[in-house]
Design goal:
OB fold (Dihydrolipoamide Acetyltransferase, E2P), 12 helices, DNA-binding, LytTR_DNA-bd_dom, GAF-like_dom_sf
């Protein structure tokens, strides 16, 4: 009853105020407060929603996904009896929040079906608000949601804990393992059991990533014998597994011949390369002999560079692509269109200071900077860690709100630029109007967009 009782006090009061439009949420954990903000501001989920919607989104399944679903299904079934005695159910969802399987006490399963806590219904945050499954897809590590911490009032009688399995290369979620209990506490070891199950599954994915990386290195080594062009091998996400000396400079990644570790991947930060790799994957699924070509902007180059792409398979499964530079063999790869705007612009940015959520008006933010696994905001209140897990995601949310990507590590508020400095070789730097007058570099490939945006 502890989770339910918690909802009757401070958290429920904060939830009622936040639903009415207030921003102060005293006594609410940051992970929950940030989730509430997403539900209200970005996803516009009705807090009076009484059941989850039917799932409509489809996910392209890969061999890695099948491995994960099988392993998590086995784990869930193995504890279903124990959880059932505590009025609980165990669920497995895919990356969209769609429930794939459910196990547990028959009476609780019947009660859960009233809220569509059942297979083929969607429990992402955008569909059902704050909950163990959906919030685990947005966060890293185990997520515990109790009582009134759920965004939708109809789910306040539930206590749930979920954790996502993530691709070891892209860090994108593949599935979620979740335990939900009706008006009772979760089993004591529930969170540690979830973490252990996911760690075991991640080890399987790491082993598969090592094997596919080794295959890509072998294909790279063999291809170098037959061609003198600059060459790199990338995985299906466009991350670099190995590159020769010339290709490493163009991609902005370490040169490694031979590769130090086939599980290591480097992100070159080149959206056009990622788009080309994804297109190559779709074509190779129809024709394994497909070869394509296109042009992309690379690092340290003012003009686009021609590349040729050839998919690499292992045991009939696509594992990546070989990229030749200054070559143009094969079918032309179309340039990816920019995704259409959703028309919903963020009114606030969410940051975290200690254990508190800070809601920032957009004009208060000078720029965002990627540093390691975190995104930091330079604001009128100082340097704050952003709630957004990646600069790419933040860039997408702010693209129509007066912010611009000027470097692979920086997104700036165009309205906060005070001066533009030109270097001896024509490079640009932006002097921001914050108290420290911080300087943000502009990469060569982003310089034309900056000039257009500023009219210079």
């Amino acid at each position: 009853m502890a989770g339910h009782g918690r909802g009757k006090g401070t958290v429920l009061t904060a939830w009622e105020r936040f639903v009415r439009g207030e921003d102060e949420v005293p006594g609410v954990r940051p992970v929950v407060a940030i989730s509430w903000h997403r539900c209200r501001e970005r996803y516009r989920v009705d807090p009076l929603l009484t059941e989850a919607p039917i799932a409509v989104a489809e996910v392209d399944r890969t061999p890695e996904h099948d491995v994960v679903f099988t392993e998590l299904g086995f784990c869930a079934a193995s504890v279903a009896h124990e959880v059932g005695h505590l009025n609980g159910v165990v669920t497995v969802t895919d990356a969209t929040g769609r429930i794939l399987g459910e196990w547990g006490d028959p009476a609780t399963l019947a009660r859960a079906s009233d809220a569509n806590l059942a297979p083929w219904f969607c429990w992402s945050e955008s569909a059902a608000g704050t909950n163990g499954m959906g919030t685990a897809l947005e966060a890293h590590g185990p997520v515990l949601i109790r009582g009134a911490e759920h965004w939708c009032q109809a789910f306040h009688s539930w206590v749930c804990a979920g954790i996502a399995v993530r691709d070891v290369v892209t860090r994108e979620p593949i599935a979620v393992l979740n335990i939900s209990c009706w008006r009772s506490q979760l089993p004591g070891p529930a969170v540690s059991w979830l973490a252990n199950a996911v760690t075991k599954t991640q080890c399987l994915l790491t082993r598969r990533a090592r094997d596919s990386g080794a295959e890509l290195v072998a294909s790279f080594t063999q291809a170098r014998v037959h061609s003198g062009a600059a060459l790199a091998a990338v995985d299906t996400a466009g991350k670099v597994v190995i590159a020769d000396d010339t290709a490493s400079v163009l991609l902005g990644v370490p040169a490694s011949t031979p590769a130090v570790d086939p599980t290591l991947r480097w992100n070159p930060g080149l959206p056009e390369l990622i788009a080309a790799a994804r297109y190559a994957s779709s074509q190779a699924a129809r024709n394994p002999d497909w070869v394509g070509s296109t042009q992309i902007f690379t690092h340290l180059a003012d003009e686009p560079t021609s590349i040729s792409i050839r998919p690499v398979f292992s045991s009939g499964h696509l594992i990546g692509n070989l990229i030749w530079f200054s070559a143009s063999d094969g079918a032309q790869v179309p340039h990816a269109e920019q995704p259409a705007s959703t028309g919903v612009k963020p009114r606030r940015l969410v940051a975290v200071r200690d254990n508190r959520m800070v809601l920032l008006q957009l004009p208060e933010v000078s720029f965002a900077e990627s540093e390691g696994n975190d995104v930091w905001l330079s604001t009128d209140e100082g340097r704050l860690r952003a709630a957004s897990p990646s600069l790419d995601k933040l860039d997408g949310e702010l693209a129509d709100a007066g912010f611009l990507r000027v470097h692979r590590r920086y997104v700036v508020n165009l309205g906060r630029i005070r001066e533009v400095e030109r270097g001896a070789k024509g490079e640009l730097s932006l002097v921001m109007d914050d108290r420290a007058e911080e300087v943000v570099p502009v990469s060569r490939r982003n310089a034309p967009a900056v000039r257009r945006a500023l009219g210079i």
